[in-house]
Amino acid sequence: MRIVIQRVSEATVKIDGTIVGEISKGLLVLLGIEHEDTEQDALYLIQKLINLRIFSDTDGKMNLSVQEVNGGILVVSQFTLHAATKKGNRPSYIRAARPEQAIPLYEYFLATLQNQFSGKIQTGQFGADMKVALVNDGPVTIIMDSKGEI
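RE: above sequence
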């Protein structure tokens, strides 16, 4: 399981011109699920995500978590995070989980995040054509992989 975390001052997700998810200060999380992922991968990344100290304290040091700054989290599914690009110019998505496996794990990720995070959680819609807009604060962008591949 792979996530791209972006510290944002605001972020939105639109489907067909309608905002379906929106946060102000917080984290935009792009979530990619591969066929070998399990609930353990989700649990690992959720703990890292909600405790990651990437917000500035009063001294300007990145020392606070999203919970400590009362930020929100916007989660957007993105199978393209598992693109294989080594050969040729057309990415292969063979490692990405098929919807019948990915949807339950995506829903588990969201439900577990909701149980462990006290702030606002918003989402996109799995499999939809989404337009994601954000203002990256910093910029701060971090990539995590539950299997330690990044």
